[in-house]
Hints:
single chain; about 290 residues; alpha+beta; Trefoil (Acidic Fibroblast Growth Factor, subunit A); Leucine-rich Repeat Variant; 2 domains; two-stranded antiparallel ribbon; 10 helices; 8 strands; RIH_dom
Amino acid sequence: EPFRLCHVTTGRYLGLMEEKGLHLVDRDKADIKTTSFCFRSSKEKCDAGKNTDTDCMGIPEIKYGDSMCYLQHLYSGLWLTYQATDAKCRLGGNLRKAILHSEGHMDDGLTLSRSQREESHTAGLIRSTVSLFTHFIRKLDGFSHEGSLSSLCLPMKTVTCSLQDLIKYFQSPLDGQSHEDKQKKMAALRRRQNMFKEEGVIDLVVDCIDHLHHYSSDSCITDATQWEAVVYLFYELLAALIRGNRVNCAHFSSSVDWLIGRLDHLEASSGVLEVLHCVLVESPEA
Length: 286
């Protein structure tokens, strides 16, 4: 049965582009012919004129966690495989570039598993967060064209509510819980933090802070108190994304000078100090 593969954190679809090959396609360009795939139990060519049922037992079923299957682009007939490793050009580690090919490799088989509820929910949050923060930055960038921040209709209320929800989502386990429960919640928290970091959300938050500081002294700001509150919440979220996570703190450790430079802004000093504390405590690199 044909289907389309949607990348949850970006909303793009896996598809075959003539000029780019296998590629993540924007929703508005994701037509059926480009993005339709199907699972096959084997790479044997199907002959519509012959009965392909094995010993009259019916069409083989593909089951979660049990069956090996292959992914085929429906309209081209090409198989999802990987590009052979070039000794002179490696992506690093065990990463392989996915491509579509007429034959592929013997080890192209996939085992399907159901999405973990926690990871699926986190991926959805990443997608909505990236969309909102990117829109917010674009609105701020439009200041140079509009000439007045008040005329940009910045989604301050929406951004504020989103920041508060995300800070709560990354809240550390409360005291008074059993050691086992606390360890489980800490492990889940680190997975959330790692997913957000891998999708570039930490860098996006830093970009938002830079934009807010750039316009913080502008005389056109109508509500300075709300502006300062949003700046502080962005620092709170940044701290929540790296707190207790050595990998994320190490990723951010090279930005210590950037943090110290932000101490000049009194309205954000408490938020800056909170982030700085997380980095200095958790990252030996700092």
